């Protein structure tokens, strides 16, 4: 994910829908978002996970293969 303030595009391929609370958590706690096969994964800050393994929201996650 490339933040628009840093010149990132504001198109659907670079957007993630978050509620207000989680939007602020992402900025305040320095989480990062990456896309894996077009699906967002969330990378926690080192103080939460030293290895910074990408996490996915399995409650709304779509299968990678259909």
Gyration radius from CA atoms, angstroms: 12 Å
What fraction, in percent, of the residue positions are helical?
Answer: 10-25%
| Largest sheet, strands/sense/barrel | 2 strands, antiparallel
Annotation field: number of helices: 1
Query: What fraction of residues sit in β-strands?
Result: 15-25%
Terminal residue distance: 24 Å
Tally of DSSP β-strands? 2
Main-sheet strand order equals: 1-2
From N to C, what is the helix and strand string? HEE
Low-confidence stretches: none
Mean pLDDT: 83
Overall 3D geometry? globular
- Structural class by sheet pairing and helices: alpha+beta
Overview of this protein structure:
The longest helix has 9 residues, at 20-28. The protein is built from one helix and two strands; from the N terminus they run αββ. It is of the alpha+beta class. Strands 1-2 form a two-stranded antiparallel sheet. The relative contact order is 0.15. The chain has one helix at residues 20-28, and strands spanning 32-36, 39-43. The protein starts with 19 loop residues before the first helix and ends in a 23-residue tail after the last strand.
């Amino acid at each position: 994910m490339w933040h628009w303030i840093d010149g990132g595009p504001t198109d659907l391929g670079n957007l993630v829908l978050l509620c207000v609370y989680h939007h602020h958590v992402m900025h305040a706690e320095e989480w990062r978002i990456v896309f894996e096969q077009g699906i967002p994964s969330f990378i926690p800050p080192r103080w939460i996970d030293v290895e910074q393994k990408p996490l996915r929201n399995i409650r709304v996650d779509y299968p990678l293969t259909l």
